[in-house]
Design a protein that fits this description.
single chain, 243 residues, alpha/beta, Rossmann fold, seven-stranded parallel β-sheet, 8 helices, 16% strand
Length: 243
């Protein structure tokens, strides 16, 4: 009997795979049998040493159109949009430059990368899986991260829109909303003792998440086990949103 969670003979592209959540997802997809292309602007050496059957691709998503020609070169079955940045400041002081930088990487690049992927899949009458990385801030406001919050609300909305358009055409589009995960983006929060304790006090699991906690969800949404799942934003948050 075939294992519906295996990804053998599938090729995946994971953006922002050099560290943290992207790295963990690349490792998980590789362990499930996929060939994994790790894309981003930083060195992927550490990820390539950990993820089986993986390779690196230099892409800088500060250019939202960076991936326009990637999918025509070789068929990609699974796209994981993880690359993202964050800028922190009070809303009254937030700059246009910081707004634009975050929106370009976190939202505009996600849409146009998905668009290029979908065009290639549809052109070959194939099937495809898109897994976008959303956030708890796809549902909440947060503080001092206005462009990040707006971008992640947008990712959740685009996930549903694209699912509406492409579900009947062989492309599953879903998202994962990580909770508070131990990554570079949350280092400032973890180093702030008061914020750290207030966050931990709300998480039913009573711990920060690890990047590896996202791997299984990504494999599931990339697999045939999720054939009838479209437009879902799956919370992987230790129970935060249930509180």
């Amino acid at each position: 009997m075939n294992d519906p969670f295996r990804l053998d003979e599938q090729r995946a592209l994971v953006t922002g795979a050099n560290t943290g959540i992207g790295q963990a997802i690349a490792i998980a997809l590789g362990n499930a049998g996929a060939e994994v292309i790790c894309a981003g602007r930083s060195s992927m050496d550490e990820t390539l040493a950990l993820a089986p059957n993986s390779s690196a691709l230099k892409l800088d998503f500060s250019d939202p159109m960076a991936a326009q020609n990637i999918f025509a070169e070789k068929p990609i079955d699974i796209l994981v949009n993880n690359a993202g940045i964050i800028r922190r400041d009070d809303s009254v002081d937030f700059t246009e430059a910081d707004w634009d930088a975050v929106m370009d990487v976190n939202l505009k690049a996600v849409f146009f990368t998905c668009q290029a992927f979908a065009k290639a899949v549809l052109a070959r009458n194939g099937k495809g899986r898109i897994v976008n990385i959303a956030s708890l801030l796809s549902f909440q406001g947060g503080i001092r991260v206005p462009s990040y919050t707006a971008s992640k609300h947008g990712v959740a909305g685009l996930t549903k829109l694209m699912a509406n358009e492409w579900a009947a055409k062989g492309i599953n589009v879903n998202a994962i909303a990580p909770g508070y995960i131990e990554t570079n983006n949350t280092e400032a929060l973890r180093n702030d003792e008061e914020r750290n304790q207030s966050i931990l006090g709300r998480i039913p699991a009573e711990r920060w998440g690890k990047a590896s906690d996202l791997g299984g969800a990504a494999v599931f949404l990339s697999s045939s086990a999720a054939d009838y799942i479209h437009g879902t934003v799956l919370n992987v948050d230790g129970g935060w949103l249930a509180r």
